[in-house]
Amino acid sequence: MDVSISLDPPDPVLAIDALPELTLTEKIAKIVAERGSFLNITEETLENEIRDGSPATLATKHQDTKGSLKAEKTAKLLEHIAATKNEAALALDFISLLISAVRPAAGQASMSPLLHQRIPTGSLGSDTSRESRNVLEQDNLAVSAGWKIEALKEAAESLKLSSIHLQSEVQWESKYWSTINELSNKGQALKITPKGLAFAYTFIDSGSRTLDPSVAFLKRDYTSKDFELSMTDTRTKVTVVRIIKCGEIIGEFFLSLPTSSGPSIKQDLDNATYYVFEYELFKELSEEAFTMRAYNVDLIDNTIILPITDTIDINIEYCEVPETNQRHSPLAEFISLLLHTSLCKFFDENRKREKAVPPPVNSRMISAQPPGPRILHNLSHVIGRVITSSACSALLKNICECAQSAGVPCHWTVSPFSGGSDHYSPSELLLSVANFSIMAYVSSKLNQDKTPLIKASVLIPSGSTPEFSFYSVAAFSELLAYYFHVALEGELLSKGIDISGNDNLPQRLI
């Protein structure tokens, strides 16, 4: 007898026919559930329902529609449940049949009665297929070879990247040392720091008192593929000298930035050195200005005010770089160059002092502090000398012109003075009028220790040589006026000339 096995569920019609016959009570309940209530049924409505095949009333039709939808869904659900049950039972039968080949009792216990009747126990067997050892070894060798190939590829790629990186590093290093060599040959100072080799643009080794380790490192710029400077400070201010007259600027000057024909790094280092020198110059001037308060030297913010006359001042300001020297002045340029040159001279003297052999231990000089720069003092001396010499020269010129207009021979000369103290450089004024002469030593030194501003020696034919000391140009002019008055009066009266009403002579001479 043939046995058919299928995963599809059985036909619902056949399944219903195979069901046992229902009792009368069950049939009535089923008819009521499918037909609906028979409470208000009549013979006419029943005939219409039989003829049309549809419910007689709207309520009956609605209930019939709902019942048909529910029955349809129920049938589908039962169909799925039956298919699932059939598949599970079939799978269980196959497993039970396999188990029965090994353990008959256990297989028969879980086997369906139909399968147990139709198919003998243990008729379905199974066996495990084992792969040979050679195949496994070949697979292992293939996997190992694959891993080796992947490792070799990764190693080759890493070596390639390392080679490219090493080549790039060699290029960077070659360019780095060529830049170092080029700048070193141009006189740029090098310094070894904990961070590496650096360029020094400070003046510590040149005699500066400012212990500012201003250094610059070469830093890679991957954008431009070149080196750029990484500096420890970025100062951008300069020392500007201005001439102020009655509160108005009549002249100014500042040293312009240095120009270099080399690479941009050299230009940046020169600019940084320039700004550091300007900073140290104003720092030394500020410290010196504090010691000159008694001489009307003021320090307001970043400006040093040095008066020349009652209406003219010299302002030394530490500020940002002006656009241009709009009011260029030879005097301002001279003062600026004098300040810079004086600081260089102080650096040189300080460097020689540091390298000199130290004094003995028992010497008193060992505890003495090194003297600071006298830049503003020297500037004041020069300005005082110029002012004094100009005032005396103007006075002598006026007197000589008056004397010559009166017919008296008169001449005067100004020549450098070779003697005197080291603290000041006076000028020698030689005046010869008629039969006597006046020798004056005009000093530009400030009246710090009550040193006379003017020392005059008057030569008179009588043989006496009186000496006078004066502390102002006005006192010296009074001396000249007195002796000129005496000389002119005696000379002119001897010629029969009356000078009492002469308008050509200064009032102080009459």
UniProtKB/TrEMBL annotation:
GO cellular component, one term: mediator complex
Primary location: nucleus
Domain of life: Eukaryota
BP GO terms, sorted: regulation of transcription by RNA polymerase II
Keyword Nucleus: yes
Keywords: Activator, Nucleus, Transcription, Transcription regulation
Subcellular location(s) per record: Nucleus
Alphabetized GO MF terms: transcription coregulator activity
Signal peptide start and end residues: none
Function statement: Component of the Mediator complex, a coactivator involved in the regulated transcription of nearly all RNA polymerase II-dependent genes. Mediator functions as a bridge to convey information from gene-specific regulatory proteins to the basal RNA polymerase II transcription machinery. Mediator is recruited to promoters by direct interactions with regulatory proteins and serves as a scaffold for the assembly of a functional preinitiation complex with RNA polymerase II and the general transcription factors.
Subunit structure: Component of the Mediator complex.
Family of the protein in this entry: Belongs to the Mediator complex subunit 17 family.
Protein name (Swiss-Prot/TrEMBL): Mediator of RNA polymerase II transcription subunit 17
Species this protein is from: Tortispora caseinolytica NRRL Y-17796
